[in-house]
Specification:
The chain is mainly α and 499 residues long. It contains 31 helices and no strands. It has helices spanning 10-36, 50-53, 64-76, 80-93, 97-105, 109-117, 122-136, 141-146, 148-156, 163-179, 181-190, 192-199, 205-219, 224-228, 243-250, 259-275, 279-284, 287-302, 311-324, 329-332, 341-358, 363-375, 378-386, 390-394, 401-415, 419-425, 430-437, 443-459, 462-469, 472-477, 486-498. Helix 16 (259-275) runs parallel beside helix 19. The two termini are 29 Å apart.
Length: 499
Amino acid sequence: MWSRRQGRLRPTVCGVEELRRRRREREAALRKARREQQLVSKRLLRNDAPEEAGEGCVAAILGETEVQQFLRQAQRGTEEKEREGALVSLRRGLQHPETQQTFIRLEGSMRTLVGLLTSNQALLQLEAARCLHELSHSEQSTVAEACLPATSYLLTYLSSHSSDFIELCLYTLGNLIVESEAVRRQLLPQGIVPALAACIQSPHVAVLEALGYALSQLLQAEEAPEKIIPPASASSSILASTLPQHMLQMLQPGPKLNPGVAVEFAWCLHYIICSQVSNPLLIGHGALSTLGLLLLDLAGAVQKTEDAGLELLACPVLRCLSNLLTEAAVETVGGQMQLRDERVVAALFILLQFFFQKQPSLLPEGLWLLNNLTANSPSFCTSLLSLDLIEPLLQLLPVSNVVSVMVLTVLCNVAEKGPAYCQRLWPGPLLPALLHTLAFSDTEVVGQSLELLHLLFLYQPEAVQVFLQQSGLQALERHQEEAQLQDRVYALQQTALQG
């Protein structure tokens, strides 16, 4: 947030303070939206054998009789191949919601499936787990809750010797976690957090990706900030485990960084940070330093490749940094980022240019970070000016109203630092850009333009004359009848005329 300034022209104080209040509310709403924006999804692993895929037939919906028949064959068949085949047929039938509902209505069906899951025959165990996985992908919470008898066994099998089996169990758990609070209530005392923490030591990339998915589903639960992430003394707590430190290790740039794993754990870190439970602890673990280095790494990567998939990692990294920079603890750790300001700003602008060309929807993420970097830091504002980045920043104004407001907010952060900064801003390309944004119909864009003009008039008095020479008063007159803007427009008009 901006610090209060003394000695401002009295007619403009109320308008600027009102803009500040609106800006604080807007940023608070943005953070709340980002905290509440769920990336909840379910993932489905289907790795049918070639001979199955080659049959060319679509899996049929199964009725009660067929479900009972396949369960009976799987449980009592004389040949292992026959038993396995029955489970394969059941699993393929469970791809249909109608078969799933039939299955959970049948008395004893889940008990039989759990019995096969816990058998001493590996192939039967695997096919039973695949059946559970199909059920876990259901959009009906009743189906997820029907799987409750299997959850303790799925947790137990996370210590299996088979990485494929562990991966399957993790994705199944992740699907179940997100569907029902009843499932989460059962999994927490059963020890899901310690079980997940143990999986993070796996050398298998597929297991680590699946772990990140299951963990992100757990962290997105509505009750996570109260019951899953804190308190640090609880054995079932994320923060009481070694997970946060290991997550940061997974995000360390270098040859061992795996993009798929990094994406999963970056989102996990994002959800922990958004819970606002113990962000100073994460900062103490070096989160700012790790994320800052990863930002530099991403900027280098986008210069070498046209791969649009890089934004999958850039988005959560930008959000994590932006949220952490709002913490008071950042000021107490000083130079923990261990990066020169210019490197951070230069890397961020490389990403902004990449987003501008490839993924404009991510521009607000980068600009939000730039806003948080410059809000309280004269050194970051100096970097913005010394690297001649004002004009590239202004080039983003036409993208959208949301982007325009954020660009203007960053410029306000720079101008607010005083006369020396305003002198380097004005006039250059800023004046025509401001005259252009004053012609916008969007109240937020015009309001932020007025705030920037207030600051320029205050710290750079000669800006008033240049503004008048460029038909600035006519630009203001367009908005003097708008209720939300007329007080600020009037104050600016008076200041301009007095100047």
